[in-house]
């Protein structure tokens, strides 16, 4: 299976204990090196949106990315923090950053903001499950306090 298909399996909640390929993908997604690459990609995305237009490379949708620069930088900060994040969130972020037809490249600010919120919630659910991470505390099972004092409110998925 290829990375995109495996990310789809992770997003769908595939049981890693039943698939070596899914387990390997989760390990790759969760690795510090991959997390740093994703954070660097986010930084590059925002820089490209604020830079000159290029005819040689694919550039993100300028207005939506710049309007959501703070949320994107928050995601990068979350990735660079040592606390665990959910593999499902990492797969969702990988998809968001690589989908040339998605809101990063062909969307509006509201749609991109909604996707960033979804990814942020999915990433933070890994912190809620880990619970032992220093500097983070789960309150009432639905909110997470980050090291910088901000709160992330987790969504409950019915699936």
What does this entry show, briefly?
This protein has 159 residues and is mainly alpha-helical. The protein has helices at 3-11, 20-30, 32-50, 62-67, 69-80, 87-98, 103-106, 109-130, and strands at residues 137-139, 143-145, 151-153.
- Run of helices and strands: HHHHHHHHEEE
Question: What percentage of amino acids are in beta strands?
Answer: 5-15%
User: How many DSSP-defined strands?
Assistant: 3
Low-pLDDT stretches: 128-144, 153-159
N- to C-terminal distance: 24 Å
What descriptors fit this protein?
159 residues, mainly alpha, three-stranded antiparallel beta sheet, 8 helices, 6% strand, globular, disordered C terminus
Write structural notes for this entry:
By secondary structure, the chain is mainly α. Helix content is 60%, strand content 6%. The protein has helices at 3-11, 20-30, 32-50, 62-67, 69-80, 87-98, 103-106, 109-130, and strands at 137-139, 143-145, 151-153. The chain has a three-stranded antiparallel β-sheet, with helices on one face. Strand 1 and strand 2 form a beta hairpin. The longest helix has 22 residues, at 109-130. The radius of gyration is 16 Å and the shape is globular. The protein starts with a helix and ends in a 6-residue tail after the last strand. Mean pLDDT is 79; it is low at 128-144 and 153-159.
């Amino acid at each position: 299976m290829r990375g995109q298909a495996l990310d789809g399996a992770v997003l769908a909640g595939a049981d890693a204990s039943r698939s070596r390929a899914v387990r390997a993908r989760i390990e790759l997604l969760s690795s510090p090196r991959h997390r740093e690459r994703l954070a660097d990609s986010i930084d590059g995305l925002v820089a490209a949106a604020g830079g000159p237009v290029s005819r040689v490379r694919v550039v993100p949708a300028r207005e939506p990315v710049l309007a959501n620069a703070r949320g994107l930088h928050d995601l990068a900060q979350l990735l660079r923090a040592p606390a665990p994040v959910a593999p499902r969130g990492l797969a969702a972020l990988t998809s968001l950053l690589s989908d040339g037809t998605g809101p990063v490249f062909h969307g509006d600010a509201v749609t991109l903001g909604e996707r960033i919120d979804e990814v942020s919630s999915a990433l933070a659910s890994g912190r809620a499950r880990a619970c032992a991470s220093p500097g983070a505390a789960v309150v009432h099972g639905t909110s997470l306090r980050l090291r910088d004092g901000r709160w992330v409110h987790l969504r409950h998925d019915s699936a």
